[in-house]
Amino acid sequence: MAKYTGPACKLCRREGEKLFLKGERCYSPSCAMERRAYAPGEHGRTRRQRRESDFARQLRAKQKIRRVYGVLEKQFRRYFTIARKQTGLTGLNLLQTLETRLDNVVYRLGFAPSRSAARQLVTHGHFMVNDRRTDIPSMIVKESDVIKVREESRKNNYFKILVEVAAQRQCAVWLERDLDQMSGRMMRLPERAEIDGNFNEQLVVEYYSR
Hints:
The structure is a single chain. By secondary structure, this protein is α+β, with helices and mostly antiparallel strands. The chain folds into 2 domains: 8-95 and 199-208, Ribosomal protein S4/S9, N-terminal domain (Ribosomal Protein S4 Delta 41, Chain A, domain 1, Orthogonal Bundle), CATH 1.10.1050.10; 101-186, RNA-binding S4 domain (Structural Genomics Hypothetical 15.5 Kd Protein In mrcA-pckA Intergenic Region, Chain A), CATH 3.10.290. 40% of the residues lie in helices and 9% in strands. A 5-stranded antiparallel β-sheet has the order 2-1-3-5-4, with helices on one face. It is globular and about 55 Å long.
């Protein structure tokens, strides 16, 4: 299973803003954007601000969304193809597809500090969907699906304190969370205003429509 294995903080610096890829670290003084708020590379400090072309703006919009959700190019393009075939706005369909990935749902439920951590927890088989164990982070969760921590996994030190930690994390409004049962349910698809992130999905649509 392919995934990005380079420095996460470099991605934030390249986009020029925090993408919150490392959980609690992003809110601390240790965040790279607090210490080195310039583009990575030899000429990062001295790079001049130039007027971006339409293509450059479209590319940056695509790269930002792709990096926030931890999706590689081939998979992202496939999601866009699926979104374009659906009814409604293609950009919103794309974001809704990304939001309903299992790793993102686990993150939105507050069961992981970041999407990368959620991806690792799912890959290790700690979660069940509709009482069936799954280890596929890219699985698309559907309405009324129930996501639950496996009974065997609750013996793990991480999950022993999960209730207290998760209670301090906000749960998405389109999800329903039961901390006592360490479970959650997807009630509906998220609306555009409920999707966090400074995204411009219309630029992504323009990028793939060239």
